[in-house]
Amino acid sequence: MILPGFAYARPKTVRTAIALHNGSQGQAVYLAGGTDLVPRLKYRLVNPTVVIDLKGIQTLTSIIPGRRFLKIGANVTLHDLKNHPAVRENYPALYQSLDATSCETLQMRGTIAGNVLQNTRCLFYNKPDEWRKAKGYCLKMGGPACNAVKGAKMCFANYAGDNAPALITLNAEVKLSGIDGERQMPLEAIFSGKSDLPYTIKPGEILTHILIPGGKTKGDYLKLRVRGSIDYPLVGAAVSLVNERGRVAVGAVGSKPLCFDFDASEAGWVDRIAREVSDAVRPVANTVLSPAYRKKMAGTLVKRIARKLAEENR
Amino acid sequence: MKKMTVNFMVNGESVSVEVKPYETLLETLREQLHLTGAKEACGTGACGSCTVILNSIPVRSCLVLTPEVDGMEVTTIEGLKVDGKLHPLQETFMEKGAIQCGFCTSGMILTAKALLDRQKKPSKEQIIRTVSSNTCRCTGYKKIIEAVTAASRKTERE
Q1: pTM, full prediction
Q2: What is the distance in angstroms between the Cα of B132 and the nearest Cα belonging to chain A?
Q3: CB contacts, 8 Å: A104 with chain B
Q4: Which of B21, B48, B132 lies closest to A8 in CB terms?
Q5: What share of chain B is helix, strand, coil (3-state, %, to 5)?
Q6: ipTM
């Protein structure tokens, strides 16, 4: 498959990267591992004039354990992060979500920030241009109607990242750098809730670091997919527990991970949280599995993790 | 679009190529350097038939832009034979019959080589995990796993 024409730049600092983006009149995209971006380019889902490669920025490649946070550089690969002792020991939900992401080879290339900031996916959107043209462009492509839900005037593409749900259950924060300076916010705040434009990040802003609060947690991540070897989640459920305070995040059932908080000291919390999740998620017919099955499985995956955690806590 | 000069090492030899900024490493290897061992199948990073080793990491060369590899070291299947002697993995793939149509083989061997380079004696689970990065539609993986296991024993003895 041939790529569309674009220029290539490899800046050495975050500041130069932002300046390059700023000079492109919004026609630039950032490249890290490329495992999400390059297929999108090949499918003509994005048509930039310049691709700015962030891998030359050395300040974004390290994992620094600190007193308050584990500070993870944007360019750290999923494989390196998975094998970091702090992740293995303290954040089981994140370890499992990293381990469940795609396949080993792509984990070695894909970066954590690239994985978190991947675009939303739909059975009727992630297709070659000819396919989409023949079908008629959908809302996410600027077309007149949704191709997944008949008559719908909004986009339902799913956020299919594995690691953002796990990071959200760990109360992770993100550091962004842009033309107006730096800002830091909870990870869940970067999601707009709109499937066609899924992020609140401003044009040219770079996610430079992910910060996870220190300390041991319990948790797990389970995902529903067709092939165990690779595949995006069709439902992804992460649960983390710090003492008795728990957090659930469910991905791949809408534009952003859905969050639920619970108290694990209350009687009957396992069934209650599983039911709450299953009732709340509203998948539509835009993946290879039916919405009814995915809705049920969202609750089931949460229940499986919650049962295991309740056993461990006993 | 203006062409770029990219310098990198391929199988131990330095090369300098003039590429379009949007040329993939797979295109450069196959069409400019005539190293056709890496195959294009899905073109979107799902299947692994275009796998090459980039600075000791296996990568899908269909997802890598050639300008990205400037100054780096690439190993393709053509580079595994040393002084006329095949790599242990190439031998055991033949001995165990781990090749049928052969289309996935170069990617499969390079993925396995990267594993054996970083882990001398991987467990069966680890081998399964690693080769499941690559799609093989013929063998059912049994003989591939046997071949990688046999190669790990061979390299351990050497």
Answers
A1: 0.96
A2: 6
A3: 129-130, 132-133
A4: B21
A5: 40, 20, 40
A6: 0.96
